[in-house]
Amino acid sequence: MRYLDFERPIEELDRIIQQQLDYAQKTGLDMEGEIDALRRRRHQLVRDIFYSLTPYQRIQLARHPDRPYCPDYIRLMMTDFVELHGDRLYGDDPAIIGGFATIEDRTVMVVGHLKGRDTEENIKRNFGMPNPEGFRKALRLMELAERFKKPILCFIDSAGAYPGIGAEERGQAEAIARNLMRMARLKTPVIVTVTGEGGSGGALAIGVGDRVLLLQNAYYAVCTPEACAAILFKDRAKASAAVSSMKITADDLLQLGVVDEVVAEPIGGAHQDWRETADNLREAILSNLEELEKVPVDQLVAARYSKFRAIGEFEEPRRKPVPFRNPSRASKVPPEADSETTFSAAAC
Fold it and tell me: Which domain holds residue 42?
């Protein structure tokens, strides 16, 4: 198990417990009492740490390399998964996977980001940052699901779309924009779950759904905390300070109406118990899917559009009052002068 910085006290206690177990096995001594006391102490320590996490510590949990990824949720919640490849335009992007699967006797289309577990796989998967062909593949699969009237389940876990020159040359922005437009109009239920990182357009490109779920320690943001700190403070190291202002963790996102439901994780994070996390998520998905399947398609699409239009608050600036013009005087103004005056006013 890999430990985060704030989990060092837990790591030390785990080391001591393992030493006691090894010593008891080697010597044959009965040390169950001492070991049970250490385990109770560990349990209390875990509760103390994880019930008082800072926003940035939750971001670290969202990025934990041992968290379950999209294929893990498919394996734990579904059966009969058939992966589909390619965008039919350029190629196959391994940063996004998708295909048909079965959940509770329902055939669904699954689309999700995929990172790697080690350096080699991360390079292959481009660290879960899709290129345009990844988003076009995702859209092709979602349109296929729409054609066969199958629900769509999207799993988001990406720091963002890949910002490389090749991606820009192949139309990264256009691919994301097209996904947003088409997902808003898909005539089939769409449930989105942010399982880890939900970064920028890379997340939103498969994030337009009738329901948006968020795991307890996941986050959803316009950019990563490090990018925000670099922009605001000119220092990526100040990411922990930026997170508190960004309001991108579960409680804030639920309060702001960006997500519809927060799915509980085991104490210590999703990586502590994949099965429990998957069971909680499966229950939430099936509950929402049952509700959405009862809604007529036209109402479903209209409600989806309204839902995203309602996110955020804004005020339109007051228009300056148009100055009164005396009609009798205006009639004496030469046409050329009048047109110039009108142009100047419009320019202002």
Answer: 5-52
Burial of 276 (C-beta count, 10 Å sphere; 0-12/13-18/19+) = middle
pLDDT of residue 325: 60
Q: Is residue 227 assigned to a domain?
A: yes
CA–CA distance, 29 with 6 (Å, rounded to integer): 34
Q: Assign 348 a pLDDT band (cuts: 50, 70, 90).
A: very low
Q: What pLDDT score was predicted for residue 25?
A: 84
> 155, 128 in Cβ contact below 8 A?
no
Q: Do residue 171 and residue 252 come from a single domain?
A: yes
Q: Which residues contact 105 (CB under 8 A, 6 or more apart)?
A: none
Q: Rounded to whole angstroms, how far apart are CA atoms 142 and 183? A: 8
* One domain for residues 14 and 111: no
- In this structure, the answer to whether residues 154 and 23 fall within a common structural domain is no
Residue 64 and residue 201 share a domain: yes
- Which positions ≥6 away from 2 have C-beta within 8 Å? 64, 65, 66
Looking at the fold, whether 42 and 120 belong to one and the same domain comes out as no
Question: CA of 333: how far to CAs of 228, 342, 343, in Å?
Answer: 54, 12, 15
Tokens of 29: 């001594």
The pLDDT, as a whole number, for residue 329 is 54
Structurally, the chain folds into a number of domains equal to: 2
| In the predicted structure, residue 164 carries a pLDDT above the cut 70 | yes
Q: pLDDT, tens digit, for every residue of 124-134?
A: 999 999 999 99
The letter for the amino acid at 96 is I
pLDDT band at 347 (very low <50, low <70, confident <90, very high): very low
Predicted local confidence at residue 341, as pLDDT: 42
* Distance in angstroms (rounded) separating the CA atoms of residues 54 and 249: 10
Q: Which residue has the tokens 């989990």?
A: 7
The pTM score is 0.84
Is 339 within the bounds of a domain? no
